[in-house]
Design brief:
With about 190 residues, this protein is an alpha/beta fold. The protein has one domain: Rossmann fold (3-Layer(aba) Sandwich). The chain contains seven helices and six strands; from the N terminus they run βαβααββααβαβα. It has a six-stranded parallel β-sheet. β1, α1 and β2 form a beta-alpha-beta unit. The protein is globular, with a radius of gyration of 15 Å. The N and C termini lie far apart (about 35 Å). The relative contact order is 0.17.
């Protein structure tokens, strides 16, 4: 079986816990290799939200890259990946991805995936959204990105916030044909 190779981007929006949990889920799935690009703002938010260091998060990934390293392998279309998830995706990152403003490695990696026809999943974190945000989401979707906001679901009967986080991350991973252990898709029951 060939491993899936997934770029995980963590931008500086509220919700860096989504990206951390995504890496934790994927760490326990040996069939998926993770390549992490984290923005500097995300690194700062880790201390605020989780009280953990960027080094602890980098240790969850198979490989990680500095956001300024535009020579990293994920900046090249000739380096194969199955695509990218940006969790969370700040409105700044969303706008940059939607309009091809690849001024850092996180956005460049998404730009490469888009130009190579690979899946990009953006998990935008903002509420309420403005017309500017909506237009940027539309532009990103028109470029081929899947927009998967971390919406609450209740059909899976969550008992705690971790259940909700795991479910929305499972929905994002489904975009790559990856079903994490314990994920309960809609079954009508």
């Amino acid at each position: 079986m060939t491993k899936k190779r997934l770029i995980v981007g963590i931008s500086g929006a509220d919700g860096v816990s989504l990206g951390v949990r995504l890496l934790e889920i994927l760490r326990d799935m040996p069939e998926v290799e993770t390549l992490l690009v984290m923005s500097r703002a995300a690194e700062r938010n880790l201390m605020i939200e989780r009280r953990i260091s960027p080094e602890e998060v980098r240790a969850l990934a198979d490989r990680s890259y500095e956001p300024e390293d535009m020579t990293a392998e994920v900046a090249s279309g000739s380096f194969w990946t199955d695509g990218m998830i940006v969790a969370p995706c700040s409105m700044r990152t969303l706008a940059a991805v939607a309009h091809g403003l690849a001024d850092n490695l996180l956005v460049r990696a998404a730009d490469v995936c888009i130009k190579e026809g690979r899946r990009v999943v953006l998990m935008p974190r903002e509420t309420p959204v403005s017309i500017i945000h909506i237009k940027n989401m539309l532009a990103a979707a028109e470029a081929g990105c899947a927009i998967v906001p971390p919406m609450l679901t209740f059909y899976n009967r969550p008992q705690e916030i971790g259940d909700i986080v795991d479910h929305v991350l499972g929905k994002a991973l489904m975009q790559f044909g990856i079903i994490p252990p314990g994920f309960r898709p809609w079954g009508g029951d």
